[in-house]
## 1
Amino acid sequence: MKLYLIKHVQVYAPQPQGCRDVLTGGGRILKIAKELPAEEAYGVEVIDGTGKILMPGLIDAHVHIVGGGGEGGAKTRTPEIMLTDITTGGVTTVVGTLGTDGCTRTMTNLLAKAKGLEEEGITTYVYTGSYQVPVRTLTGNIQDDIILLDRVVGTGEIAISDHRSSQPTKEEFAKIVADTRVGGILSAKAGLVNIHMGDGAEKLDFLRYVLANTQIPSENMLPTHINRSTTLMKDGIDYAKTMGGYIDLTTSSDPDFLEPDEVKASTGLKMALDAGVPVEQITFSSDGQGSLPIFDANGTFLGLGVGKVTSMYRELRDAVLQDGVALEDALMPVTANPARLLKLSAKGKIEEQADADLILADAKTLKLETVMAKGVLMIRQKEILVKGTFE
Ligand code: ZN
C-alpha cells in the first residue's frame, strides 16, 4: 500500500494541533511531526497541505445502506446507497441500519451490503433489528447477534414515541438495552442502542426510565432525530444536562424544506452548547438513504427525496461558518464522539497508529477537497478516484 506524506497542514485532531506533517501507510497514520523529510525515492507521495485543514474522516452512525422508506407503499422504498454517496461527504465509517420496514429489509441483506462497502474501501458496521419490538434478529436474539456477528455493534433503530413503533412498554425497552449492553460487554463492542425518536408526547421518558430504574449507563443509548422539533430538542437538552444522556441530531433534512418546528442540526448543536450541554454528549448522523418527504411552505406534499450522507459535512461546515461554533467543537459530534460511543478506538482522531481516515478541506471556505479511507485516496482535489462497483 502506498505511503502518503501530507506536508504543512493545519491538523484538527479534532483538537487543533497546529501545522504538522502527517505520514500514512498500511492503512494507518504512521508519524506526525513538525517536519518530516519527503523520501520520494522510497515511493512516498507528497500531498501539499498548505492552506488546508486536516480532519479525521467523519463517522455516520445511522445510515440506511440498503435503503429505507416504503411508508407510501412498495414504490416508495428507497434504493441502496453507493460508495461515493458516502465518500463525497468525507464520511469514512458508517453504521448501517434498517428502519420502519423489518419485513422486506432483512439482516442478511444489511450484512451483505456492509461487507460490500467494506470491500469497496470504507469501514462499515451495522445494528441488529429495525423499528420493531420484539427485535427481529438474525440468530434469534440480540446478544447472540452482537457476540457472534463481527459487524454488529448494537441494536437499532428501535422506534419509540412514534405512531410507527411497536409501542413497547418501558420494561420491554429496558430489556432491549440490557441485552444489547451485555452483548457488547461479552464481545468488547459498543453495545449501543440507536433509538428512533418520534413526535410522541412521552419524548425521552423511556430513556429516563432506564437510567432511573437500572444500573445501565447512558452510554448504551443514543436517541436520534432529537432536532425533529423544538419540543424534543428542549427535552434532549434537559436529558443531556440532568441525566448525562447522549443526543443525536439528524442532518439530512433539506435546509430549504424544514418542517415549521424542525431545528437544523447545526443550529441544534449551537442551541445545546449555549444551554450548557457538554459537546462530548452530542453526535450527528445523517439518516442517509432514508426517504425524505418534501413539503412546500403551505405543507403541500411535493414528493419524496432521499436523505444524503453528505449532509453531515454540510452541517459541520454550517455550524462553523453560520452558527459560529469553533471547528474543534463542531468536529466532535461527527468524529471523536461517535467513535467513543461505538468503541472504535482507531477512529475519529488524528494520532499515530490511528486509522488513516482523513479529510482535507480549504482552511478558509472549509470546502471538502480530499478524502482518504484506510490509507487509500478515495477523492483527490475533488476528483473521485475510487467508485463503487456499479457506479
Ligand atoms: Zn429513524
Note: Residues 99, 157, 196, 225, 287 surround zinc ion (CB under 6 Å).
## 2
Amino acid sequence: GNSQMGATIVDALDTLYIMGLHDEFREGQEWIDKNLDFSVNSEVSVFEVNIRFIGGLLAAYYLSGQEVFKIKAVQLAGKLLPAFNTPTGIPWAMVNLKSGVGRNWGWASAGSSILAEFGTLHMEFVHLSYLTGDSVYYNKVMHIRKLLQKMDRPNGLYPNYLNPRTGRWGQHHTSVGGLGDSFYEYLLKAWLMSDKMDTEARKMYDDAIEAIEKHLIRKSNGGLTFIGEWKNGHLERKMGHLTCFAGGMFALGADGSRDDKAGHYLQLGAEIAHTCHESYDRTTLKLGPEAFKFDGGVEAVAVRQNEKYYILRPEVIETYWYMWRFTHDPKYRQWGWEATQAIDKYCRVSGGFSGVKDVYSSSPTYDDVQQSFFLAETLKYLYLLFSNDDLLPLDNWVFNTEAHPLPVLHLANTTLSGNPAYR
Ligand code: DMJ
C-alpha cells in the first residue's frame, strides 16, 4: 500500500527477539502500540499483509507473550475478511482496508486470484482462531481447501490461477516458484503445525509433490537437478530464486512421506540446494540471480538482463538452514558464510542494505530498496544457520513463509474441525 504501515518494523520484530536485541524489540513494540493503525484508506495485498504483518505480529506474540501483538493481529485480520466476499469464497488479491472493497491484479489470467496468495493464509488463520476462539478465520481457509480438493487438476498439477467468480482455473501454468510456491509449503506446514493431525493437508501435499516430481523436476545435461515451470503442456527449463525454497521444503517433508521415501526427499532437497548454490557460484558477485536457465548449453545462469538482479531474497539460505538442521553437513554453513560475505560486500550501503541490479557485473548498481523480508527472513535464517538446534527446534515451531515461527498446536485426540477451540 501507499500508507506508512511500518512493514519493516513489524516484519523484523521476531528477528530482534531471537537475536536477543531486546532494547530494539521494545522500541518496535512501542511504535506498534502507539502508531500501527489499520484504519487507512489504502489498498493492500491480502497475501503480503497476512504473511508479513499477521505472521510477524503472531510470532512476536508467541515469543514475547505481549498482548499488544495479538490484539493488533486480530484487528488487522478483521480488516482482511471482506476480501473473502466473493461468489466462491476464494479471496480477492487486494482489499481496501477502509472500504473493504476487493479486486484482483489486472495482469492475472482472466481475472483470477493467485494460488500462492489465497493458498498461503492457512497457518496464520488457524492460529487466529486458536487464539480468539472465533472459528471465522478457520472456516475461511478450510473452505478454500475443500474447494481446491474437489477440483480436477490437469496432470495432477495445480494451476497458478483460479477465478474467484466462476471457480474455474485460469491459464494452465504451474510453478513451484512465484505464483505457486507457498501454497505447497502451507499444505506441508498445516500438517506439521497440527502436530501431524491434519492428515488431509499431508495427503494433498504428497499428491501435489508427486505430480511436480513427475512433470517439473528434471536433471540438466551437467547433472544439476532443477524444477522447471509448466506452461500449457510445455516444460520451461527455467528456475526462479523463489523456487529454491523447495529444497528446504522437501527436506522438511521427508519424515512422514508416503511409502517411506524419506531418504529420497532428503536427497532431492540436497540436490536442489546444490543447484541453487551453483546459481550463486556462477556469478561475479557470488549472489544468485532472480531466475536461471538450463537450456542450450546454459546451466544455472540467468540469460535475460531483467533476470540478473538480487533483491536480498532468502530462499537459498532458507534451504541451506533446513539442510543443515537435517544433515549437519558443514558445507551448508560454508555456503551460508559465502552468501553472508557477498551480501556484506556488495549490498551494504550507508542506510542499510540494498538489492543489486546485476549479479554478473563487477560494478553493480543498487536498486535502493531494502525489502522487509531481508530482516524477517534472510538475516534470521543466517543467524539460525550458525546457532544451535535448540534455538527454535523444528519439533515445536513451524515457520510461516516469511520466516515467522509459530508454535505447533498440540490438539491431541481431536480433529481440527471438531476442536472446541474453533467453535
Ligand atoms: C517473501 O515475502 C516470502 O518468502 C514469500 O513466500 C516469497 N517471497 C518473499 C521473499 O523472496
Note: The pocket of 1-deoxymannojirimycin is lined by residues 181-182, 242, 313-314, 373, 377, 401-402 (CB under 6 Å).
## 3
Amino acid sequence: MLDNIFRGRRLRQSPAMRSLCRETGPLLAGQLIMPYFVVDNPDPGFAREIPAMPGQMQLGLDALKARVGRYHELGLKALILFGIPAHKDEQASGAYAENGIVQRACRMLKSEFPGLLIITDVCLCEYMSHGHCGIITADGAVENDATLPLLARTAVSHAQAGADIVAPSDMMDGRVGFLRNALDQAGFSMTPIMSYAVKYASAYYGPFREAAESAPACGDRKSYQMDPANWREAIREARADLEEGADILIVKPAGPYGDIIRLVAENCDAPICAYQVSGEYSLIRAAAQQGWVNGEAVMLESLTGIKRAGAGIIITYFTEELLDKGLAVRN
Ligand code: PBG
Ligand code: ZN
C-alpha cells in the first residue's frame, strides 16, 4: 500500500467527475467567428472549393447569402469577410471602392441578417497587383505612412456599407489610431476596431494566400509582420494598439502561439481573440483525411487549447463544422 501519493485519478474516474472538475468551458457559438471568402464573380452563384483548404469555399454573393443563412439558423453569430476583387492594381482601389465586393457583401448581409455581426478584414494585399499589404516604393519597400490613408478609406467604406466591426490586418505602425480618427470623423465612433495587434510572419498562412489569391509576388511580409521568435514584443504591440484605441486584440496564429495568447491576456484588459489560421486548419484536415488522426477530436482539442490559453473569441474555419455537429453551445 502506497502512502501519501497524489491520486489525481480520483477526479478522473467518471464522466460526471470529469465534468465537475473541468477548468475550461465548452465552446460558445456567440464567441466563434467564421471566415468567408467572397469573390467578385459575374456569376453570383459562383462557389469553388479551395484546394488547400478542404471544406472551405470561395463564394459569389448569392452563394454567400445561402451559406450564411443556413449557418445563421444553426447559431452563427459572427463572421469575418475577405474579398477577392475582379481586378487588382497598385493603389488597391478595389479595397475602398463604394461598390467593392466586400462593401456589396456587407450591404447584402446586413439587410438579410440584421442580427449577425459582420466583421471585415481591412487590408490591401487582396487588392494590390503585387500582393503586399501596403504601398510599394520604387525599390520594393512597403511604405508605412503612405499606406495609412488607404487603410482608413477602406475601413470607413466598410462601416458605411454596414460592417459592425473592422479588423485591420496589415501591421502598419500607427494604423489603429489613424483608423479610429477616420471612423470618428465619418460618424462611426461606435464602430469597434478589432486589431490584428499581435500578428506573426507565419508560414501557417500558406493556404489562405491561395484562398484569397493574395500571395506577395516578390519578397515576404517579414518587414511588417512579427518575428515568430519574439514574445516580449507581443506586449509592446498589444499595448500600442490599445493606446491608439483598439477595442479587441487579435493574436495570430493561435495554436502554436498559446504562450502569446496567455501573455497578452495577462497583460491587457481588452477582449482577446485568437485566429486559428488556414494552415492550422489544413494540417488537421489533411491528417484526418489520411486517417492518421481523429479529425473531430483534434479539432476540439485544438480549440480547447486556444481557449485554455486565454482567448475568449476565436476565429476558426471549423465554425461551420462545430455548428453542423452541435459541438458549440448556442447562446
Ligand atoms: C491579410 C490576411 C492574412 C490572413 C488574414 N488576413 C494573410 C497574410 O497576412 O498573409 C491570414 C489568415 C489565415 O491564414 O487564415 N493581411
Ligand atoms: Zn494584407
Note: The CA atoms of residues 272 and 311 lie 5 Å apart.
